[in-house]
Every structure is written in C-alpha cells, then in structure tokens.
Amino acid sequence: MKVCFLQFNPAFGDKEKNCRAVEDLLKDVVADIAVIPELFNTGYAFLNEKELVNLAEPASGETYEFMQRLAQGKNIALAYGYPESAGDSIYNSMSFVAPAGIVATYRKSHLFFEEKFLFNPGDTGFKTFEYAGIKLGMLICWDWIYPEAMRTLALQGAQIIIHPANLVTPYCPEAMVTRAIENRVFVVTADRTGDEIRGDKKYHFIGKSQVVAPNGDILTRAGEETCVKVVNVEPELALDKKMNRHNDLFLDRREDLYFT
Ligand code: ACM
Fold first, then answer.
1. How far apart (Å, rounded) are the C-alpha atoms in residues 130 and 136?
2. Degrees (nearest 5) of the Cα angle 94, 70, 4?
3. Given 13, 71, 92, 154, which is the most exposed site by the fewest CB atoms within 10 A?
C-alpha cells in the first residue's frame, strides 16, 4: 500500500487557493492514501470566534465536495483537517474521504493552547475504521502527547495512524518514533510549514512531516520544504505485536497495575 503526506504552507482564509494547492501537489502522485495537514483549508491563527465561524463548514461542505471530486479523479483516499461546524459547535476535525465519499470523521480530542477558546473539544473518541482491507486510526496534532490516544487506537487493531498536524513545538517528530515502537503501528504525520503572524498571534510551523514504521524506522521525513513524499508500507507488519519470542507487547500488558 502506498501512503503519502502533503506538506505545504496554507494561505490563511483562502480555502479555494488551499484546495488548489492540494490538487497541484497531487498532480503526479500515485498513492492509495494521502494525508494533508490539520486545518489545511483555512490556516491556523484565527483572531477570534467570528473569523472561525465564517470559515468553518459542515463535514459535507464545499471543501468535502472538492476533496471527494479529487479523490474520485485520482482514485486516492484523502485525509485532511478543517474547521467543522455542526449545529452550534465548531470542531477541529479531519475527514477521511475515499473516491466514493466520507468514510470517517474525527474531531480533535486534545485542544492546544488558544484552540481552547475557539473550538469545542472533540466528541467522537478514538475509533478505528476499515479501508482497503486495513484498519486505520486518526489523531490530530496535539493528540500525540497523550500516549493513551494512540494506545486506544492500537488496541482496537489500528495498523496505520494518520495524523494531520500544525506542529509548533519541536517534540512530536521524535516522540512519534516511540509511539510507533510502543504500539507497533505505522504513523503518517502530515504537518504544515511557514509562519502565521496575525494580530498578536505568531506561529512558526516546523514541517518535519514523516512516515514511521512499527519498528521505529523513519521511512521518510521532510524538512521545511513544500513536498509530497510517497512511501510503500506493508500494513500487515503492524498486526504482529511480538518484540521477541517471549514478549508480545499487548499480551504482556499489566492492566491490573495501570490507572484507567
Ligand atoms: C497543535 O495541536 N496544532 C499544536
């Protein structure tokens, strides 16, 4: 199975331009699944709730329509982050869109910094879903810092974790190597690049999107450039939780000793 990430610098507030950027980046790409950064269609540095409300859209909105057409035209599944409006709530969400339509939507559980004043905490929980015969799990950016989040997905059988991000702290790329090893799963992180300076908000996004294998090998890692990296992975490797003849990572867990 071929997975890839797209790394680029979205233009704040310009959904059409950002959707076109994805289309351009995917032009010559042949892959099964493409992971696209958190909030890729709008950018990150909302000054206030009003800006967010104006840019948010339902999971089935115009961004979905564009992505579904793109998925169909290229016969690829697209996982992308966007601000989702649902009733009176706005979530920092991602959808996994196959050529035939939405397969799953996840709402970010752990909000980072001032996201807490803008978004509702996600209410979807950590659920896996099946696509092309394999189990996938979804996390968004800051969810990485809670080992419980990926563990919950891995215990349900997730083989590949797809992880759109807007990373502003330096820790995630290395930490994800440990997450991959301790759960024996593949992890695809699609981060953005660039700076957003708006009002008193100033963010630098670190790039370093990557694909990590269940043994911790970094199969590819970007710098801060705009790029697409495609990697061939064998998802069945993630079904084997044995570290050696005597240690199975999941069977050896001492649930009786852990706080829940
Ligand atoms: C983040 O969760 N966007 C750092």
1. 6
2. 60
3. 13
Q: Give the span between the Cα atoms of 121 and 162, in whole angstroms.
A: 19
Q: What is the secondary structure of 111-157 as a DSSP string? A: --GGGGGTSPPP-S-S--EEETTEEEEE--GGGGG-HHHHHHHHHTT
Residue with tokens 């800006």: 51
Nearest ligand 1 atom to alpha carbon 168 = 4
DSSP 202-248: EEEEE---EEE-TTS-EEEE--SS-EEEEEE--GGGGG--EEETTEE
Number of domains in the chain: 1
Burial level of 40, CB count in 10 A (0-12/13-18/19+)?
Answer: buried
Task: Report d(CA 74, CA 210) in Å as an integer.
Answer: 22
| Per-residue model confidence as pLDDT tens digits over 59-87 | 999 999 999 999 999 999 999 999 999 99
C-alpha 72/C-alpha 68 separation (Å) is 6
Among protein residues, the one with the nearest Cα to ligand 1's atom 3 is 166
Domain that holds residue 27: 2-257
- Catalytic amino acids? 38, 108, 141
Residue type, 88: D
Conformation bin of residue 88: beta by default, left when phi > 0, alpha when psi is -120 to 50: alpha
170 DSSP assignment: S
CATH for 98: 3.60.110.10
Q: Which residues of 142-154 are buried (b: 16+ CB within 10 A; e: fewer)?
A: bbbeeeebbbbbb
- The pLDDT, as a whole number, for residue 259 is 85
For residues 193-202, average pLDDT: 97
